[in-house]
Design goal:
- The protein is an alpha/beta fold.
- The chain is 37% helix and 17% strand.
- It contains 14 helices and 13 strands.
- The strands form four sheets. Strands 10-11-12-9-13 form a five-stranded parallel beta sheet. A four-stranded mixed beta sheet has the order 4-5-1-7.
- Helix 11 (335-351) runs antiparallel to helix 12.
- The structure holds adenosine-5'-diphosphate.
- The site of adenosine-5'-diphosphate has 18 residues, from helix 6, helix 11 and helix 13.
- It is an enzyme of class 3 (hydrolase).
């Protein structure tokens, strides 16, 4: 225990702070910002002092233990962290300590470990320890983010739909293969988001892709696939899955998950009766897509997310179990959803004091029944155009604009609604 006026630091902390025992050190109070929880902590394994011999460490378990042991502690990038686990003493360096939604500031990255902190391990060294199941660690992070704040991701009003998608399509990916094998279930490999245009299907699919896959997902568009490559469409569909195929061939069960988003999937997967092109192109593409997710040569490492405004046009064969089996309707936002969407799209101008104090978003949400997210975004854009127009002098368009005076008012929004 440290006495009054003393600070206790272990050897690693002393080395990091470049002090020795008995040194006098100045201390400044650190006031953390409101949002100080770490979203992401990347730890590089420096070395392991071995007690027992255990060559493989499960990333999920290791991350859970780390979170427990260091909960509410502040981590700073560059810092060394020492951690005892199953008789081994691990020394990590913090490579990245990122706070969600915050721009990188000039100072060192730092934040507090919370239950939601997603921990990634990097092992570039020769420690002789292999950290396995990184991917499961990533998905279990999604699990913890079940109540993910979609609004902070720029998606308004689709919380219930997201929870539904999560349970039906993600949950099976959260658990390591040995658990799902025991349960005898197969991962969901296809999902369909359907509903009116402009309701956020693409936003949602992208977000799901990023969460599961960690990178920007591949997005292809049905009509483009069809028109651009007439005669070559099948090759295209093959190319689409090429990365996933390579990955599965070379890494097997360790392969990454590949999320492929197919916008306007109805364009190529129309039910047979409704295609009158007589070429059979549609049929063969549908068949090809199906063999990739449900055939003998089916891939285990893909999630195909199809999107359509016209579910009724889709080939039934595509919707059977094992195919695009999870179908979620993304409908027009309700009043609360509209409020969230309006907040998202006015957030920036509000931050920069361009939003007049008389603007009542709740009232606008009440007045915009049956507007889609895209239309609400359009209303905001149009309201801004009214405000900007007021600042322009018609006699002299080159006259410099007085930035301070730009204010988007409630009237601008009301005019925009009536357009
Ligand atoms: P869809 O794929 O359903 O046709 P998109 O996701 O492409 O619709 O939406 C188009 C644009 O409209 C988005 O880029 C976004 O700016 C806005 N938008 C639509 N729905 C929402 C929503 N739920 N929350 C926030 N913005 C939305």
């Amino acid at each position: 225990m440290a006495g009054r006026g003393e600070i206790a630091l272990n050897a690693i902390q002393r080395r990091h702070a470049k002090v020795s025992t008995g040194d006098a050190v100045p201390v400044i109070r650190f006031i953390p910002p409101d949002e100080f929880n770490l979203a992401l902590l990347t730890l590089e394994l420096e070395f392991v002092k071995k007690g027992t011999k255990s060559e493989q460490v499960d990333a999920v378990l290791l991350a859970n233990q780390l979170r427990k042991r260091f909960i509410y502690q502040v981590m700073t990038s560059g810092q060394k962290v020492s951690f005892e686990y199953h008789g081994n003493n691990y020394i990590f360096t913090v490579n990245q300590a990122a706070i969600e939604g915050q721009e990188k500031s000039s100072g060192p990255e730092r934040g507090m470990i919370s239950n939601d902190t997603y921990i990634v391990f990097e092992t570039s060294n020769q420690s002789g320890i292999k950290i396995v199941n990184q991917r499961e660690a990533a998905s279990s992070n999604i699990f913890r983010h079940k109540e993910f704040n979609l609004q902070s991701l720029g998606i308004g009003g689709l919380g219930a739909e997201f929870a539904d998608i999560f349970r039906r399509a993600f949950a099976s990916r959260v658990f390591p293969p040995h658990v799902t094998n025991k349960l005898g279930i197969k991962h969901v490999k296809g999902m369909l988001l359907y509903g009116p245009p402009g309701t956020g299907k693409t936003l949602m699919a992208r977000q799901i892709g990023k969460m599961l896959d960690g990178r920007e997902p591949k997005i292809v568009n049905g009509p483009e696939v069809l028109s651009k490559f007439v005669g070559e469409t099948e090759k295209n569909v093959r190319d689409l899955f090429a990365d996933a195929e390579n990955d599965q061939r070379t890494r097997g069960d360790e392969s990454d998950l590949h999320v492929i988003i197919f916008d306007e999937i109805d364009a190529i997967c129309k039910s047979r009766g409704s295609t009158r092109d007589g070429t059979g192109v549609h049929d063969s593409i549908v068949n090809q897509l199906l063999t990739k997710i449900d055939g003998v040569e089916a891939l285990n490492n893909v999630l195909l997310i199809g999107m359509t405004n016209r579910k009724d046009l889709l080939d039934e064969a595509l919707l059977r179990p094992g195919r695009l089996e999870v179908q979620v309707e993304i409908s027009l936002p309700d009043e609360n959803g509209r409020l969230q969407i309006l907040q998202i799209h006015t957030n920036k101008m509000k931050e920069n004091s361009f939003l007049a104090p008389d603007v009542n978003l709740a009232e606008l949400a009440a007045r915009t029944k049956n507007y889609s997210g895209a239309e609400l975004e359009g209303v905001v854009k149009s309201a801004v155009s009214y405000a900007l127009n007021r600042q322009l002098s018609m006699d002299d368009l080159t006259k410099p604009v007085d930035e301070e005076n730009i204010k988007v008012t409630m009237d601008d929004f009301l005019n925009a609604c009536h357009e």
